[in-house]
Amino acid sequence: MSDELPAERSDEPITPDRIAADCRDLGVEAGDVLLVHSSLSSLGRVPGGPQGAVEGFRDAVGPDGTVVVPTHSPQLMDPSQFSNPPVPESWYEPIRESRPPFRPDATPTRGMGAIPECLRDYDEAVRSDHPIYSFAAIGADAERLVETHPLETGLGPGSPLEAVYDLGGSVLMVGVDPGRNTSLHLAEHRADWAKPTVESGAAMRVDGETRWVAFEELAYDDGAFADCAAAFEAARPDAVETGEVGIASATLFDQRALVDFAAEWIGERRD
């Protein structure tokens, strides 16, 4: 029951039909590729909780469209990167040696919210195989969106984020701070700046065995993302729509326009 209770109450239930209609009012169209960042509790009282929300987003894009959600699993990142809380260095190897491997069909999300966790479990959903930065998709272009996902560029080239870009997709933020828009990490990769890297790794299934796989990745930094999103809204009002989905504040971004703007914005501000 608690998953259905909003932070504030609406005068009526926020049905899947209402969610779909609100998305269309924002500018979502049938056939769209829609990357959704969401907070279930912000929507209002949704019959069926996260499942009702998933059905609403699917109805908004229709059978020819695709819904994409982040299904990240940061609990599987290298223990040397744990910060909330950190763990003693003496724990690193025991964690690496004992941790279960990433399994796209089983590993739960963490910190993504109830809606992505629900969508990834749909029979029709497919999930990319990055152990930390996976995405799940459902719909006409789902397989194309998740078919490649390089370890070294989990939020960059070759990732589902770039596939959304290539397909001309949109980003819908529902009850979520625009500064948490993962597409801005794709812009980090594309920006012209001295890109620091960090050593990372995860337990994965390789040739039928569990192995610790080490890789190097960009040292992601979202500290200025809220400022970047605000600058984009001011500079490109034609590529942003704001309104409500249910009782949640919502913003719809043209993802390609956002990433192109943010790559230049980041490049001008980072050494």
* Shape by Cα distribution: globular
Helical fraction equals 25-40%
What is the radius of gyration? 19 Å
The class by helix and strand makeup works out as alpha+beta
What order do the SSEs take from the amino end to the carboxyl end, as H and E?
HEHHEHHEEHHEHEEHEEH
Q: Name the average pLDDT.
A: 94
Low-confidence stretches: 1-7
Q: What's the count of strands?
A: 9
**How many domains would you count in the coordinates?**
1
Main β-sheet: number of strands, strand sense, barrel status? 7 strands, mixed
Number of helices: 10
Strand order of the largest sheet: 3-4-2-1-5-9-8
Distance between the termini: 49 Å
What proportion of the residues form beta strands (DSSP E)? Answer: 15-25%
Explain what the structure shows.
It is globular, with a radius of gyration of 19 Å. It is α+β, with helices and mostly antiparallel strands and 271 residues long. The protein has one domain (2-269). Strand 3 (126-127) and strand 4 (135-139) form a beta hairpin. Helices cover 32% and strands 21% of the residues. Residues 1-7 have low confidence and may be disordered. The chain has helices at 16-26, 40-43, 50-61, 92-98, 114-119, 142-146, 160-166, 183-190, 225-235, 255-269, and strands spanning 33-38, 66-70, 126-127, 135-139, 170-174, 197-206, 209-218, 240-245, 248-254. It has a seven-stranded mixed beta sheet, with helices on both faces. Strands 6-7 form a two-stranded antiparallel ribbon.
Short description:
By secondary structure, the protein is of the alpha+beta class.
